[in-house]
Amino acid sequence: MNTKIVQMREGHIDEVLIQEAGEILKAGGLVAFPTETVYGLGGDALNPLSSKKIYAAKGRPSDNPLIVHIAEFGALAPIVREIPGNAWKLAERFWPGPLTMILYKSDQVPYETTGGLDTVAVRMPGNQIARKLIQAAGGYVAAPSANRSGRPSPTLAKYVAEDLEGRVEMIIDGGDVEIGLESTIIDLTSDRPMVLRPGYITRQDLQDLLPEVEEDSTLMRDDSGQAPKAPGMKYRHYAPKGDLTIVKGTEESVLAYINAQCERKESKKTGVIGTDSTVGRYCADVRKSVGSREDEEAVARELYRILREFDDEDVEVIYTEAFDDSGIGQAIMNRLLKAAGHKIVEVL
Ligand code: TXA
Ligand code: MG
Questions:
Q1: Which end of the chain is more exposed for a tag (fewer CB within 10 A), N or C?
Q2: Ligand 2 centroid distance, CA of 115 (Å)
Q3: Global pTM?
């Protein structure tokens, strides 16, 4: 398949191209597009064949449900059994934005889209290109992150092209994403609202609105006996090719530990994820900074790009500093823990 790659910016949306992309989706084709979190791989959410194509293009197991993207609140009612009070509250505060809600689905949503579940994940993105595209496509776009299964979610269109060129009809390059980590997911079908995936909207943000909010106990721990509640969280999703270890401790102890390890691994290509104040002091072969430790938003934005760069440079052993796991840091650490297969070393 020949993939058409087009460029657009939120402030300069090409309506003709958006219509063309919308027609592709309506006809059952696939279009990758920017959102404020990461790039999405879109298909018509109400067309079972489109969902099958998404799984095939991604190389993703079909028991892993897709998020249905909508552009306006009025589009929610037809695809869910009911809109509970908590969904109204959350939508009012956080939509459009990086929040996905799990609700009971209506008959409109095919099981192919929900991976066989009776629930559906719904999100209204804030990115203007995404919203125009959803409208042009008829209102419902199923979209997982636009990466091949097992690779970090793409935060730049060039990574979408790397993974999906030849597998989708169109890629809309909308420039760098704003957030860089996938949306926060909250399940509203259990007794108490439960966070299934941490993101830019933090536990505290949610608790301010819904004090009874809980979180899936598998988010930050490797509870091997228990399955995560979001089917996709059970896969080793965000895995770099190199063997990744998180090192936690004081700045000096982390530096000393990582440098000692890199020296011992001299036959292998080593890499380090550090911060602006430490990166120059590591002796690994490849050193990258995620920015300033204080600027968590920047760390979130840089993380996946850096993991991909380590892949491109064939780094075999990677060490990363740990981050504070409160606020957005919880999402950063959740992704790092998954990428590392929960390999974390504490040094004193
Ligand atoms: O920010 C995002 O959410 C991005 C952009 C493109 O919107 N999308 C994204 O989709 O991250 P994906 O497919 O990579 O991750 C969706 C996650 C998976 O872990 C999946 O298992 C979970 O949401 N999920 C989807 N539907 C669900 C459901 N009905 N119940 C529980 N988990 C669900
Ligand atoms: Mg994904």
A1: C
A2: 14
A3: 0.96
